[in-house]
Amino acid sequence: MNNAINALKALVRKDITLFFSNRRSLIITIAAPILIAAFFGNLMSPKSTKLSKVPIAVVDLDRSPLSTKITTALAADTSLDVTTPPQAEATELVRNGKLRAMVVLPAGFGSNAPKALFSRGENKNLPQIDIHYDPSQSMVLGLVRGILSQHVMEAVSQSVFGGNGFNNLAIDDLRTEIAASSTRPELKRDLGAMFDSIAKVQTQMQDPTQTQTNSGDVSKSDAGKSGGGFSLSLPFKTEAIEVTSDLDKKYNGYAQSFAGMSVQFVLFMGIDFGIALLLARRMGLWKRFRAAPISRATLLGGSILSCTLIASFVMATVFAVAMAVFGVRVEGSMAGFLGLIVAFGFLTATFGLLIAAIGQTPEATRGLAILATLLMVMLGGAWIPSFLFPEWLQTVSLAVPTRWAIDGLAAMTWRGLGIEAALKPIAVMLGFSVLFGGVAIWRFDWEE
Amino acid sequence: MQNTRQTTATQSASGLIATNLGKRYGDRQVVSNVSIAVKPGEIVGLLGPNGAGKTTTVSMICGIVEPDSGSVVIDGMDSNDGFATKQRIGLVPQDLALYENLSALQNLELFGALYGLSGDLLKSRTVEALALVGLSDRAKDKPATFSGGMKRRLNIAISMVHDPDVLILDEPTVGIDPQSRNAIFDNLETLKARGKAIIYTTHYMEEAERLCDRIVIMDHGKVIASDSLANLYKQLPASQTLEIECDRMVDLAALRNVEGVKDAVLGATPNVAPDAEPQGNQTDANVVTQTTSNIKISLNDLSTDAAKVLVWLGVHGIRVNRISSGRANLESLFLTLTGRQLRD
């Protein structure tokens, strides 16, 4: 027993000495994940993820007060960078990718839109605003459509109820239309009353003296606004609040990217470990090890232990740099964080051993192992956070151990969760490790 | 297992005794009934062409490959008894089996630890092993900075660090210069003098002839010859020869009756006289009446029998114009035994 432990220690010492003696490899092993994680972290950080102003064109074919008001409102929006070139030029700019979208307000929009507000859906004069967009920037379409809807509704509502730029013709048309319809008499009566009220409001809005008398509070708060000091607006406002461990703690995009990249590059190290075993099997060193009075368990155990230690060291070092330079913090459980690192180190070692067991030759194994690793890190969310995956893929990726590693590290860093959030990922990774190790030992060919 | 233990109990002789080793891979019988015994202080050469089964045999002796049949006993201990025999064997693989980026000392410490050495004992053994191969002054240097010969010597030192009783060397001098080869030979002779039982696998006949007390020749997974060099040579029809150019014709039949002469045949005939054409079946070696002065004589022992031949020629008034001697070698022995060159 003492001899076995003595041999195990010697094997581990050897691997660690060899790892640190190759300084070039050491630097690359640690620097590569840091550099790439820094890049992705910068892209994913909150400052960077705030969209820059979206460049769009507004083509106003109506030139009405209402369309002008909408154009002005769009130009004032902080999310948009609005220009108003001619339609042909704007189309060309969208096609060239210089603009993300072009909004075309059609002729007659100013008169038709207010009427359409009270239409019953079958209005043939329903105005249509065309949004021409760059198909490569389709994500912008939703943003433009949302902002456009907001400003159009605001302007049209104000026009209808505020009496600005809109006259009683629209309501008169509606009265006539309803009177001629087969609507029930009591409903016709109610609609007529509503139109009377609207007309009354419009009259009051056009005469500020009446407004002051009848609704002093409103006019006071909205003094100075057009239409006699009253206007309609969105009935709510929003405020975005990050949900992390503490309201004072902000999301750090680097925490996510460092988790992903450290997982990726440590797994690559696992491939090297497996291929080194295959290479050793070809060489006299393997014969020397096999000829020595040590068991197979000691021989493979030494390799697994040293790889676990080295992988854990690399991951811890990468995160240490992330903490020192990029402000990543273990907001959750430090014990859980360390447990995840060691568990992933063990997973890496058994993964490498599995590669050595399945691969017949180093040459044949390398390509396959890299493909398998890239799939694992991709599905694990190392490149794109898994919460951005489609729902089915999020479910599928739970079968990939790297997903648990990355989610666990995210939980212990920026999410700031307790150790209980680390236990399940650790257990899953250990389970995969046992599976990998078991298959590897079962399949390992001891002779070249 | 019980049979094995009985065998162990009865085979109390020291050294290595491998008996009836057999190994099959699929349908191919790689090694069949191979037996090798090496006594302490003896070097046994294991020869054979590629694919003869040498490496598999060595691997079975070292415990790297499990034999399908047979046993390996070292100093009375059976290879099935745990790691006892492995502990007593030092293997020098043909490939350099060392870490280029660990120092010579670290290499020795690593493999010493695998053999259960630690502390002061490990330190003293590493010092001894390095001294044996003349690398004491390079202990802290990495093999990456060594010459090929120095690496080979370190390769041997690593296998010696645990002071094994049996040393197995698989072509340890491949690709090194004559000076380093001689240094290794000196090391091996030192180890032999210390009582190590050594198996030496090689392709180089001159190495086997110089170093080995006995030779085991393998072909197609079987031992086809195993004996001392002298006895193996005796199996050859012409292991030691004299070539003599005489000033006249010699009666070969009479010459064959001289003591120590195994055979006498015609040699090259550069100056055969036209009127001396052999008649009938004169080319038959048993009845030939020589027509030339060049003859080739096979002797039992060159050192003692050559003089008898020269005396016989003198008695018969035959003058010797030129004489040369030759010895058969392992190449010719192997050729005789297998009909193939060793490196086929």
Describe the structure.
The complex is a heterodimer of chains A (448) and B (344). With 448 residues, chain A is mainly alpha-helical. Chain A contains 20 helices and 4 strands. Chain A has helices spanning 2-21, 23-44, 46-49, 65-76, 87-95, 109-117, 138-162, 168-180, 185-206, 208-214, 216-221, 226-229, 253-282, 284-291, 296-326, 334-358, 362-380, 391-396, 401-412, 420-443, and strands at 54-60, 80-83, 101-105, 130-133. A 4-stranded mixed sheet of chain A has the order 2-1-3-4, with helices on both faces. Chain A starts with a helix and ends in a 5-residue tail after the last helix. Chain B has 344 residues and is of the alpha/beta class. Chain B has a 6-stranded mixed sheet, with helices on both faces. In chain B, strands 2-1-4-5 form a 4-stranded antiparallel sheet, sandwiched between helices. In chain B, strand 1 and strand 2 (28-38) form a beta hairpin. The two termini of chain B are 40 Å apart. At the A-B interface, helix 1 and helix 14 of A face helix 4 and helix 6 of B.
Give a short summary of the structure.
The complex is a heterodimer of chains A (448) and B (344). Chain A is mostly helical and 448 residues long. Helix content of chain A is 69%, strand content 4%.
Topology:
The complex is a heterodimer of chains A (448) and B (344).
Chain A: H1 2-21, H2 23-44, H3 46-49, E1 54-60, H4 65-76, E2 80-83, H5 87-95, E3 101-105, H6 109-117, E4 130-133, H7 138-162, H8 168-180, H9 185-206, H10 208-214, H11 216-221, H12 226-229, H13 253-282, H14 284-291, H15 296-326, H16 334-358, H17 362-380, H18 391-396, H19 401-412, H20 420-443
Parallel strand pairs in A: 1-2, 1-3
Antiparallel strand pairs in A: 3-4
Chain B: H1 2-10, E1 16-25, E2 28-38, E3 43-47, H2 54-62, E4 69-74, E5 77-78, H3 84-87, E6 89-92, H4 104-114, H5 119-132, H6 148-160, E7 166-170, H7 178-193, E8 197-201, H8 205-211, E9 214-219, E10 222-228, H9 229-234, E11 240-246, H10 252-255, E12 261-266, E13 294-299, H11 302-315, E14 320-327, H12 330-338
Parallel strand pairs in B: 3-8, 3-9, 6-7, 7-8
Antiparallel strand pairs in B: 1-2, 1-4, 4-5, 9-10, 11-13, 11-14, 12-13
Helix pairs in contact in B: 4-5, 4-6, 5-6, 6-7
